[in-house]
Structure formats: C-alpha cells, structure tokens
Design brief:
By secondary structure, this protein is α/β, with parallel strands linked by helices. The chain has 18 helices and 15 strands. It has 3 domains: 213 residues, P-loop containing nucleotide triphosphate hydrolases (Rossmann fold); 125 residues, Rossmann fold, CATH 3.40.50; 153 residues. The strands form 3 sheets. It has a 6-stranded antiparallel beta sheet with strand order 2-1-4-5-6-7. A 6-stranded mixed beta sheet has the order 8-12-13-3-14-15, covered by helices on one side. It has a 3-stranded antiparallel beta sheet with strand order 9-10-11. Helix 9 runs antiparallel to helix 14. The protein is elongated, with a radius of gyration of 48 Å. It starts with a strand and ends in a 6-residue tail after the last strand.
C-alpha cells in the first residue's frame, strides 16, 4: 500500500480545505510542525479513514461513544459543522487507486459518518458496503499499530512485560487468533449438535471443560505472581546495591583492610628511610659544596687569572731567551736586534702589571680541572638527584599520612552495625522472595501437569461420547472430525506459535543490532510461548534483566519489536510515525536516521518537530526524502494550514 493523497476539510485543527499530495518515489515523507499544530491529527485521520470505529486510536481514547469521537474532530470554525476526510492509496498487487471518503456533521444528537469508496475515481458500491471486510483483509486493524504509531506512546506498549493489547496483536500476526476463533467455532458446532440430541449426556465433558478453564485461569494468575515477584526482586537488588555502596563509604571495609594497610605503611617507611639515607650519602660528598657555590665560582675565576698570569710569564721568559740568543748570534748593533730589544722591553713592561697580581691559590692543572668539572657538571647532577629524592620522600610521606588517616578514621560502629543489619535484612527478603518464586514456579509446573491431564481427560470424554453416538452416522461423523480437528488445531497452534515466535525473536534481535549503539549488549531475544514476554540475552547466553536497560535502550527495543512485527507480517504497507525520535539521545537518534527510517517501508511518513529531526538530522536524511511539508499555525484563526517543504530547509 502506498498513500497518494490525504484531503482534510474542517477536520480537527485544520480549518477549510487542506491537502497532502505524495508524488515522489523516495521512501521518506517528512511532515514538520510544532507541538499541537496537527501532526497527531494527521495520523488519526489516516486511521479513521481506514478503520473507523475499529481504529486503535479510537479504542485507546477517552471516548466511550464513536459518535462523540467523530464530533471531537469537527473544526470549531466550520460554517456548516461538517468534517470530511479523503484518503487515496494504491495496492501493490493491482496498482489501482482506492479512495475512501468519510464525512459527518457535528453538534447533532447522534453523529453518524457517511462512507463512500471509489475505485479509480468511480464509486464502487460493493467496496462501500463491505469496506471494513476489505481493509481487514489487506491490513488487519490488529496489525495497524505495528505500522502507524506515536513514538512517545509506544513505551506504554511494553512495560516490564508486554501488555494485553500488544499480546493480542502478536497473536493476530502469528495467526493464533484465527486458530482460536476456529477452535471456538468448532466447539460451538459440537455444542449445537449435542444440544439438539438430548440423549447425549455431556455433563461429564462440560464439567471437565470447566475444570480446564479454572486451571487455565490459575495458571495465568501464577504467571502474574511470578512477574510481580521478579519486579520486586529487581527493585530489592537495586536497593541492596545502594546499601552496600554506602556501607563501604562509611568505612565498612576498613577492618577487613586494616592489616593490609599496616603492612603497606611499613613498606613505605622502609622506602622513606632508604631515600633519606641516599640524601645523607650525597651530604657526605659534593652536596655541602652547593652552599658555597658562589664562592667556588669566584675562586675559579681567580684561579683562571693566576693560570693566565703564570702562562704569560713562562711565555715571556721563553721568548726572551730566544731573542737573546738571536741578538748574540747576529750582533747587538744591527737594526733587527734593536727592534727585538725594544719589543721585549714593551712586553716586559706589560708583564710587570701581571706580576703585581699576587698568586694566592697556586692550583695545579689537575686541581683547576677538578674545580671546573665540579662547577660545570657535578653540581647539576647533584641538584637533579636531590630534587628526585625530595620528590620521592614527599610522595612516601603523603602516602604514609593517607594510611594513617585511613587507620585513624573515626568510624561510627553503631551506624555501621545498623547498615549491616539492613543489608542482612534485604538479603533475607531477597532469599524469601526467591524461595517464594521457586515455590510458585513449582506450583505453576504442577498446574501445567494438571492442565495436560485434564485436557487428556476432556479428549477422552469426547472420544467416549463419540462411541455412544455411533448410531447417528451423520452427527457422529461431524462430531468425530470436529473433535479430531480440535486436537489437530491444538498441535498445529503450538507448532505454528513456536515456529513464528522463533522467527520473530531472531528478527527482533537483527533489527535491534541494526540500530543499537551498544552492539554487544543484547545478542539474542527470546519470547516466552506461554506469556509472550520478551527475555534478553548477551553473547554468553546470560539473561539481561529489562530493568537494567536505559530508557533509550528500552525504546529502541520497542521500535525493534514493532519493526520485526511489520517484517514478519509480510505486509507491504506504509509506516507513519508521530514523534519519531521522542526522548532518545543523539547516538540513538542518528542510528534511527541512518539505519531505520530509510529502510522500514517503501513509504515512511515522519511527523516531527524542528527539534527532533533538526537541521543536522534533516541533512543526514535528505537523500532519502521525497515529499516534505510544514504545518503552519495561524494565531488569528487558531487553525493550521499546509506548506511545501520542511521548515524551509531545502
């Protein structure tokens, strides 16, 4: 099914004529509007056009009368107080255009709707008369909630367990409801036959059937009790976890760890002493000299000057000897000799200045080099070692102080005893509830055995009855095969349910893994064939309690369930989602935008505000968007109208 057009006239908040026309082949249709502007009204209009009084929107409303429900949709500003809707759609199997036209007048004593169905624009009287049968065949109303739903309300479909409405819808999907109807019809046929044949005594059979009904009710009560106990246990375990955490915070583990902390303190004291010894070792070597570092630097400068003076004197003496030898050899009266003697006199005059600087330290070359090594390298190394040792010593002292504070902790023993007593009491409550649950489980198992036994007796009573009816060939044949059909139906129902539930469980898990943020949280989903409740398991087949899931994870699981139900229904139908992202966080929202909306159907209509599918999500979804509309609200007329485009973001 593909929706082609929705026409609204004076319907709900839509005053006058309003029309949504869908022409694009892309899968996503985006309809934007602020809250209270008519998005939910769009969804209710589609449901009303298709199902009328069978619409789940009406069944779940506060109206106990369908006429009043219709009257509530007549726009208050309508001149003639007549509301009407028209829905055009095609079916995949034939491509013909179906048009459902519904109208009604409000403010009357008894509001009644007029229904007309057209096929390719021409009124089709047969479809008009039998519309409810036709649409139930194409899209059963029980399945419609899987395709048309409100994102904010779907959390109510599943609480801690699947609710009754959802269970009935699942049964409809599995085909079980049809089998139940067939079983009841066969039972009614048998009852009619036996009522006409008074000579057949069915008192024993009726008594056994009543016993079976009582057992079935008791079994259902036990299931409810077990679910309630499971909820209580989950709540108590959460409280116990909080109590144990607070117990630890108040010093509940100090006693247990005391010996360990004392040993750790001794080890730290030993490390501290070793660190102090290393510092003493440094004190006996170069470290004290750091105190006179500036003096040593001055001494080093003076030693350098003395070294320079000594080197200069030695050089002058050597040069003087060489010049004297040269003069003696060449003669004193030569011009060169005179120049050299003058040069030497100049040098000696300059060296007299150096001779005035008195030599104080007279360091040897080795001593001078040792002093330079000390100042240039060893002092830096000593300072680094001192800094490291100081840091270690400080850390050891801090840890020792923390341990002392921990060991000196002022613990309120009376408060701890009270807290410990509370923990014990909660554990005892949990143990009692688990024992009670175990007891109820045993009772349920016994009831199941009794139910099987009484069912066997019912079948035996029917067989006994058949033996007494051998003379009535026609009735005998009918009753015999009806009874046989009942037995076959029971077996077929069980096998069909198990097969369909297995398929549904796998599909739910597959859908969840496509959109879940934590891919490794849930790997498997199982559905209890008796209660139809969901059970979740991780990759190690360990059950995950539903209460441990976050609100977003629960909502994703509900969406996965709806998606899986739609897939397993094998129906090619449009999906309409009001408030599609609800209260999901950004990660979960993007998962739906990327993996869910474009693929759930050939036509997915999303009814959203600008803060749900905002500009960023709009761009992420844009390549899949065909038609888009914005519902605008007029403050003066207090009504809504339709504009093309999604908030003008195209």
């Amino acid at each position: 099914m593909i929706i082609k057009r929705l026409y609204l006239k004076d319907f709900g908040i839509y005053n006058g004529e309003n029309e949504f026309i869908f022409t694009n082949d892309k899968s996503v249709v985006l309809i934007g509007g602020m809250n209270g502007r008519g998005k939910t009204t769009f969804l209710e209009a589609v449901l009303l056009a298709l199902y009328g009084s069978n619409s789940f929107a009406y069944k779940e409303s506060d109206f106990n009368n369908y006429g009043r429900y219709l009257d509530s949709f007549v726009n208050k500003n309508s001149v003639d107080q007549i509301a009407s809707i028209e829905l055009d759609f095609t079916l995949e199997n034939n491509g013909q255009v179906y048009t459902v036209v519904k109208s009604w007048k409000g403010n009357t004593l008894r509001t009644a709707e007029n229904v007309t169905v057209k096929l390719n624009g021409e009124v089709e009287s047969f479809l008009t008369e039998h519309w409810n049968i036709f649409i139930e065949n194409e899209l059963p109303s029980e399945l419609s909630r899987f395709f048309f739903f409100d994102g904010e309300k779907i959390s109510k479909l599943i609480g801690k367990n699947i609710n009754t409405q959802m269970k009935e819808s699942i049964k409809a999907l599995l085909g079980i409801s049809v089998l139940d109807t067939l079983d009841h019809d066969i039972e009614r046929i048998l009852k009619n036959i036996t009522t006409e044949k008074n000579d057949f005594d069915l008192e024993e059979s009726d008594r056994l059937k009543k016993q079976r009904q009582v057992l079935e009710q008791e079994l259902q009560n036990k299931e409810s009790s077990m679910n309630e106990l499971s909820n209580q246990l989950d709540s108590l375990r959460k409280i116990l976890e909080e109590k144990e955490t607070n117990f630890k915070k108040k010093g509940g583990e100090v006693t247990a760890q005391r010996e360990q902390q004392i040993k750790k303190r001794s080890d730290l004291e030993l490390l501290k002493e070793q660190c102090q010894k290393k510092m003493l070792d440094l004190s006996s070597n170069e470290m004290p000299l750091l105190l006179v570092k500036k003096n040593l630097e001055s001494i080093n400068e003076k030693v350098a000057e003395e070294y320079q003076a000594s080197f200069t004197q030695s050089s002058i003496q050597w040069l003087d000897d060489k010049i004297l030898a040269f003069v003696n050899e060449s003669g004193k009266n030569t011009q060169e000799s005179q120049v050299l003697e003058n040069f030497m006199e100049f040098i000696k005059a300059d060296s007299k200045v150096l001779e005035k600087n008195q030599s104080i330290f007279q360091f040897s070359e080795k001593s001078r080099m040792q002093l330079e090594e000390l100042l240039n390298n060893k002092f830096e190394e000593v300072q680094k070692n001192i800094a490291n040792l100081n840091s270690e010593l400080k850390e050891y002292k801090k840890e020792i102080e923390n341990i002392n504070n921990y060991l000196d902790l002022d613990i309120d023993q009376e408060d701890l005893q009270n807290r410990h007593r509370e923990i014990i009491e909660i554990n005892q409550k949990i143990a009692r509830l688990e024992q009670k649950k175990c007891f109820i489980t045993q009772e349920r198992n016994e009831l199941e055995k009794s139910l099987k036994s009484i069912t066997l007796k019912v079948n035996q009573s029917v067989e006994k009855l058949l033996k007494n009816m051998e003379e009535r060939d026609e009735d005998h044949r009918l009753i015999k095969y009806s009874s046989l059909a009942t037995k076959i139906l029971a077996v077929f129902k069980e096998r069909l349910q198990n097969l369909k539930l297995e398929e549904l469980s796998k599909t739910i898990a597959q859908c969840y893994l496509k959109i879940a943020n934590k891919k490794n949280l849930i790997s498997e989903v199982r559905i209890d064939p008796q209660t139809l409740n969901l059970h979740y398991f991780d990759s190690n087949s360990k059950e995950i309690h539903g209460s441990s899931l976050s609100a977003g994870e629960k909502q994703l699981m509900i969406i996965s369930l709806l998606w899986a139900l739609a897939i397993c229904s094998k129906k090619q139908l449009p999906v309409i989602i009001d408030t599609p992202l609800s209260r999901l966080d950004s990660n979960h929202r993007y998962a739906l935008i990327d993996q869910y909306f474009p693929y759930i159907s050939k036509q997915t209509i999303l009814l959203s505000t600008d803060t749900e599918i905002d500009h960023g999500y709009f761009l992420a979804l844009k390549e899949n968007i065909g038609d888009s509309f914005t519902i605008k609200y007029d403050q003066e007329t207090k009504s809504s109208r339709i504009e093309k485009g999604y908030f003008g973001w195209e």
